[in-house]
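Note to self: the last two entries modelled the partners one at a time, which told us nothing about the interface. This time every component goes in together.
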Amino acid sequence: MSIIETKNLTYTYPGGTKPSIKDVSIKIEKGEFVLITGPSGCGKTTLCRCFNALIPNFYQGELEGEVTVIGLKVAEHQIYEMAKHVGLVFQNPENQLFALSVEKDVAFGLENLGVPREEMRKRVDSALNLTGIYDLRERAPHELSGGQQQRVAIASVLAMQPEVIVLDEPTSFLDPLGAKRIFEVIYDLNRKLGVTVVLVEHRLDLTAKYANHIVIMDDGRIVLDGEPRKILSSEEARLIGVGIPKPTRLYQILQKDRVSLSNTIPLSSDEMATMLREVLKS
Amino acid sequence: MSVFDGLKFRRVYSPIHNLDPRIKFIYVCAIFTTAIIFLELIPLMILFLMQVPFVILAGVKREWLRSMRGATFLAAVIFLTNFIFSFISAGYIVTAFNLEHAVAMTLRFIVLVESFSVFFLTTSPDHLGLALEQTHIPYEFCFAFTTAVRFVPVLAEEAQTIMDAQKARGLELERGNFLKRIRNYIPILIPLIVSAIRRSLELAEAMESRAWGATESRTNLYVLKMHRGDLVLIVITVGILALAIYVRLFLGIPSMNDILGRFFEPQYF
Amino acid sequence: MIEVENVYFTYPNGVEALKGASLKIKNGDFVAIMGENGAGKTTLVKHFNGLLKATRGTVLIDGVDTTKVSVAKLARKVGFVFQNPDSQLFSETVEQEIAFGLKNFGFKEKTIKSRVTWALKLLDLAQYRKTSPFMLSGGERKRVALASVLAWNPKILILDEPTIGQDHRQKEKLLQFILQMKTQRKTIIIVTHDVEFVAECNPRVLLMRQGKITADGEARKVLTNPEILIQASIVPPQITQIFLRLSDFGLPKEVIDIYEAREELLNFLERKVK
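The predicted structure of the combined assembly is written out below.
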C-alpha cells in the first residue's frame, strides 16, 4: 500500500473563486524521495497542506476527494494526530521556531504530545545529532543563520519520528552552500533512516539528483508524474518552464546534434561530466 | 536597536542565575514588603546594601548600574515631590524629619527598582517562561510570553527594514508639521501590521503541524529542581521577613537625626 | 558613477560589516555583487543611497559625498528595490503604490500620471492598476515594488536578491527586463547568490567576503575560478562544473553558458574526427 495516496482531490480556499488544486491523484510509496515542482501558484503548497490535515482542519474551505496517509483517512483525523506521522517544514525558518533555545524548540512537538521526559531527552538529542546541530542546542534560534535555523526546524519535526517529512521550499531564503547542506541532511534521512521525503522546490538543478520520483504541477493539476530522468528530459517539462537542470538541457541539445551519448539521462553536472569524458575519450 | 538589546538575553552562568526563578521572585517580593513596612532610613539603607552582594555574585554590575542610572530621574522626581509637599504642609520649614522622610521615600523606590532589576537581569526569559509553566499558569499564557520575547528583536529589525525601504522611495519622516509627521508613519505601520498578521498565520500553521493542543497533560523538556542555593535563599527570605516584622513591632528605630545628634535645627523661611 | 574608497562600517551593536571596501562603478555598468549571507553585500549597497553612512572612508555618487546629502536626495538618483516587496507595499491600489515615490519627490500631477502608466506597462502590470497590491501573487508583488522604484527613472538601479523565491518563468522575465534596462545604459547593480542567474546575464561580478571585496571581473572569469569562489562560499555554475572536470582534454575552463558549451564540445569532436 502507498504511504500517501490522494484520489481526485479538489480544494478551494474559503472565499476563493476557483479551486487551488483540481482532481489531483497521486501515489507516494514508502521510502521514496519525491520532488514536487511547478510554477508559483500551481498548488504545490496547497497539496502539502492536505497531507497533515491542515487542509481542511486549519484552513476550512471546500475539499472533495480523499487523502490517505499510512492507511489513515486524513479528513477524519485531527492535525495533532497526523503530526505524529507527517512532519511539515515550511519556507521561512524564522516563523516556525517559537522557543528561546534550540533544544526547547526541538522538544516542542513532543511536549505537546505529552511524551515522558526521559524519552523526550533521548529523541531530542538524536534529532539534534541527525541534523548536525547538537552543539547549538543551547543557543537562541534567532541568533542562528538561516541555514542553521532551517536545520532546527527539520530536527523539530524529526523528533516526532514521523514516517513522512514534507518540506515546502525549505531553502529559498538560504545561500547556496546553506541550501546544499539542507538537501544533504534531507537526503541522509531518506537513505539512512528510510524516511519518506516530499520536497517542494523550484531549483531542480540542486535537487533533481536526489529524487527518485518527480511530480510536476501546473495550474492546480498534476501534469507529469514519474521517474525524474524520463520526466525532466521530456518536451512537456521544458514547455511548462520548470527550469530543467542545465546538464540535462546540454544532454538534450547534444543529442539533437547527433552526438552519440549513453541512454541514461544525466541530472547533475557530475553525471554529465562522467558521460562526456567517455564520449571525448573514444 | 539599542532599546531592544536589553531584551536579547545572554546566557550567563552564576550562582544567582542558577537559582529557581520562583524562589527569586518570592525573595524579591519579601524585599518589596519589607521596604513598604519601613519608612525609616536605616532599615532601608540596609535593604539597599543587601542587594549588592547579589549583583556582584551574578556578575551583572555594569547592567545593574545602567538600570540604576535609568531610575535616577524618577528617583529625583519622588524626592522633590515628597520634599516640597512636606515642606509646604510643615508650614514652609525644612525639618530634619521631613528631609529624612523624603530621602526614605526615594530610597524605598530605589530598593524596589534595585531588587526587580536584579531579578530580571539574572533570569533569562526562557527560565522565566518555564517558571510560569510550572506554577500552573495556563500554558497558552506562558507560550504567549516566551513567543513575544522571541519576536521583539525580529519585529524591531523588520521595522528598520521597512523604514529603509520607504526612505529609499523618498519618504522623509521628519518633514512637515505635527499632523503630517504622524501621517508619515502610515507607510511604515501598514507593512509592519500586514507582515505581523502574515507572520502569526505562519506561526499558527507551524504550531498546529507540531501537535499543538494534542493533550491536556503537556510534558516539559526541562524541570525546575530545588538546589542547595534555593534553600539558602528561602532561609534568607524567611529570615529577612521575620526580622523585619519583629523589628517593626517590638523595637523602636532611631531616626538619622537621633543618631547624628540634633544638628538639624528647624529652619524658618 | 559610484566611487567607494576604503569604506569601513560598524553597526551600532558592534558588528563590523565592512572592512575596507573599495570599488568604482561607471555609468551604464551592470554589476552583480555576490557572496555568502553576512559577507556585507547589502551593507555595501545601502551606502549607495545613503541609508548607511560610512564609519570611515568615503562613498561618492557622481562626485557627491553621501554623508553630505539626505537619503531622499540620493534616492532620486539611486533607486533601491528591497528583497521583500512586503517591506514597502502599503497603498490601496497598485497605481497609488507606484505614485508614492513620485509624490515624495514632488513631481507634477500630470507627470505622475504619465510615469505611472509607463511603469505599469513596462512591468506588465497594466491590468492591475486598480487592484490592491495585497491581492497579488508573490511574483506580481515583486514587480509592483520594482515598478514603484522605476517610476521616477533613477539613473542607478539596485536590486537586492531579485531572484529569491522566484520560479523559472519569473526569473526569465526578470532577465529580459534587466537586459532591456542595460540597453538603455542604466547602471544596474544586483545583489545575489544565484550563480545560475548571474551566469545567464553575464555581468561584471564583485565577490565579497567578510566585509571586503575579494574579486572583481567579468562573470566568465570570476565564476570559473574555483579557488576564488570557494572562499566566498559560492559553487560554480553547473556548466562550468562540467568543464572544470573536462579540462584535461584541452577544453577551456571559462565556459558558463550552455550554447557556448555546445559550441566547444562540437568543435572538439569535429577536430577529433579530422
